[in-house]
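_Full entry_
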Amino acid sequence: MIIPPRPALPPYRPRSRAGHLTWAAADGPLQTLVVWTERRPGHGEDAEPLATHHRPTAGGLLAVFDGSGGSGAAPAWRGPDGVTHTGAWAGARVARLATECWFQRVAASGEAGDPAHLELCLRTVLRASPTGAPSKITGSMRRILPTTLAAVRYRSHDGGVRWQALWAGDSRSYALLPLTGLHVLTRDDTREDDALAQLRQDPPMTNVICADRDFTLSAHHGEFQEPCVLLAATDGFFGYVHTPAQFECVLLDTLGRARDMDDWADLLRRAVMPATGDDASLSLAALGFGDFGRLRAAFAERHALLVRRGYPDVPSGDGPDAVHRWQERTWDSYRPAYETYMPEVRE
């Protein structure tokens, strides 16, 4: 089962530029959704999220891709409609294609899915892709077809879910658990490790997927008991809140108000679009809840706890110092659980 990135259209037929898309699907104990928004319709540098599930093995892959607009700003591809796109736009979409092909191969063959094989697929497809005319942009920051990747591969078995997070750059994968909330499963490729400091500084990335330079695909794995939620998101979702806890608040507030998975996806889109300063994409799978009503009920107590602790409530009227103190206080109490499954710093 694959959620398609867009409806099929006749070749070369221009499509309307809505600037956002959402999808949702359910298949037995699996419920999944994706959200994708653009700041500039038709020119968003996030590729459409990937959510694919292989029924015979009860395994799937969630992935997001954020083209790096600063280092990949040079024109790279002109579409059939005559619109020119940047290397960042093209890089995210080429990486999506390579990742989907990798998953289809390993799922069909029953292979474990070595991250080194995905890294090789990414290198091969990116280096084989056309990169446009030579650019006048030069220097150490320039990249050809640069993009982040955050993916989480999962497989259900005997009431548990084995997962493997794969990433390069500063997009992230998470687990959302009914009792303990949101847990990050990746570590940003930046020199700043503190998530609150990253929100304040937006530090540059030290590793990004691209066609012209070496990059590293990191991996981290573990296992949860069902039920659980897994998701991957670009920084348009989590980079424009005041604290990491507020991202969980957005997830649970919209879940609590939703009627079904389609409605949850639309509420997430409506929540992020006015708030973010970037393209935003998210891919999510809920495993083992049975139906949407049970999924929503499973997180009601956790959401109430976040509200009681004041995580959603940004101080108003007391100036930036009050906000700063509130950020520090809430982050200190939220951080230990949030980082429970975070990988160690790579040497």
